[in-house]
Design goal:
heterodimer, A: 104 residues, Ubiquitin-like (UB roll), 3-stranded antiparallel β-sheet, 20% strand, flat, B: 353 residues, binds fe (ii) ion
Chain lengths: 104, 353
């Protein structure tokens, strides 16, 4: 989700990038669907509707400036996520249980 | 499963019975193994058929190839709005007009998905548009052919979008994540494009003699250019892509050769033409019992190179129209900027107050 450097002086180059999130239907979370350029949040919402929900793909839309997203770095992916790697006892299938016990 | 007040006796009763938990454990084990081998490198990810994401390390040549391919693809989507856009005001019914507008609008959306995917590689959409406008980057040469009659809109949907789908479906599994995701959205939307085109021809081919002739004439003119959309052959005298195709395949950008995709397209389309009662303009077209495929005649590759280099019927017109639209839209973009700036200023003053 890198924000490209703003270059040149055409009016379009200064439009910030927005990430678009759509709630597909009631009861589901908003999911990232893509990005677009827009001068402000209102236009980002309108463009997001036109670009990502032309076939009723959503009942709610979020737009977030890409610049405002803090992402974990791929370089430290290993050390960052490693604490979870050796704790497979957090998964239910880790446990030895007799096969004939039901509903467990 | 807190909060369930009803349990379906056929449903799994707890998380351990769902397959996805096992999948997650298996995936965790694989990633752990990969890490142990220091295996989240570009090559290891490719070997494991995993996706490369924007912030991953990647060879510069991979990045450049993707930018060029995605940009050219994006340019094709937005230039592709013109041949059919040309007919919106003359569509034969309100139904056809609404459909055509929806299709042309979809193509604009496809362009946007793809420019956004290219931008994740560190280029600016405005830069790419400059390259298109100055002729330094190309778009698919199919859009340099004119739409002479209403039936051309049918032939474009059926053959051109049909060939595009054949090219695009494998790209949904492309190694570069943002490109693959954009292609999934595009492919979902394309199938209506092809079907509405077939329907136009289906209607014409059952109409008056003049309407049927119009449908046949459109099929005659679009058939060979559609076959050229798959690009030059992979082998033989006209082959020019050898090294390029092999590299793209190794990188997981391309999944099938040009000739394989072209053959699949021919095999799919010949029975559809028969259903329409239309002939295809190739005297050498015949079913090969041995191979189980349709053999077809030699493609005139000099035509592709000629059109690609600028000598098609509409090259100049397409770019002129695109540049014109861009300039004519400048005041709208400026107005939006001015509005946004004033809005920002107003908000700042509120904070201060
Ligand atoms: Fe498209
Ligand atoms: Fe299309």
């Amino acid at each position: 989700m890198s924000t490209p450097a703003v270059k040149g002086n055409s009016s379009e180059r200064s439009w910030p990038l927005w990430e678009v999130f759509v709630r597909g239907k009631r009861g589901l979370s908003h999911v990232h669907v893509g990005s677009l350029h827009a001068p402000d949040a209102e236009m980002a919402l309108r463009n997001g509707r036109d670009v990502y929900t032309r076939r009723q793909e959503g009942v709610s839309l979020w737009v977030v400036r890409s610049m405002d997203i803090t992402a974990s770095s791929p370089d430290e992916r290993d050390s960052f996520f490693d604490p979870a790697a050796d704790k497979i006892y957090r998964h239910p299938t880790f446990y030895d249980i007799p096969e004939d016990v039901e509903y467990l | 499963m807190y909060g369930n007040d009803f349990i379906d006796p056929d449903e799994p009763l707890n998380a351990a019975e769902f397959g996805d938990v096992d999948d997650a454990v298996a995936a965790a084990a694989t990633t752990a193994a990969q890490r142990a081998e220091g295996g989240s490198s570009f090559e290891a990810l490719l070997a494991a058929d995993q996706r490369i994401e924007p912030r991953d390390e990647m060879p510069e040549a991979y990045r450049k190839t993707l930018i060029r391919q995605i940009a050219q693809h994006a340019h094709s989507e937005i230039i592709g709005m013109q041949p059919e856009g040309n007919w919106i005001s003359r569509a034969p019914s309100l139904r056809r007009k609404a459909i055509l507008m929806a299709k042309v609008q979809d193509e604009a959306g496809h362009g946007l998905y793809l420019y956004a995917a290219a931008e994740t590689l560190g280029v600016d959409r405005a830069e790419l548009l400059d390259l298109l406008h100055s002729g330094k980057q190309k778009y698919s040469s199919i859009f340099n052919y004119p739409t002479l009659t209403w039936a051309d809109n049918g032939a474009i949907g059926w053959l051109v979008d049909g060939a595009a789908i054949m090219n695009q479906v494998p790209l949904c599994r492309c190694s570069y994540g943002p490109y693959a995701r954009a292609m999934i959205r595009v492919c979902k939307e394309e199938s209506f494009h092809q079907r509405q085109g077939f329907e136009i021809l289906w209607t014409l081919s059952r109409g008056t003699a003049a309407q049927k002739d119009m449908a046949q004439d459109a099929a005659n003119r679009w058939w060979w250019p559609a076959l050229m959309m798959f690009g030059p052959p992979d082998t033989g005298d006209a082959a020019t892509t050898g090294g390029h195709t092999a590299q793209s395949m190794a990188w997981g950008i391309k999944r099938f050769s040009n000739d394989d995709l072209r053959q699949k397209f021919v095999d799919m389309t010949v029975p559809q033409a028969a259903k329409l009662g239309l002939t295809l303009p190739d005297p050498d077209l015949r079913f090969n019992e041995e191979t189980g495929h349709w053999d077809f005649g030699a493609i005139d590759w000099s035509e592709l190179w000629r059109v690609l280099k600028g000598d098609g019927a509409c090259n100049a017109e397409r770019i002129e129209r695109r540049v014109g639209a861009h300039h004519e839209g400048a005041w709208v973009r400026e107005a939006a900027n001015a509005y946004a700036a004033r809005h920002d200023l107003g908000q700042q003053q509120e904070y201060v107050a």
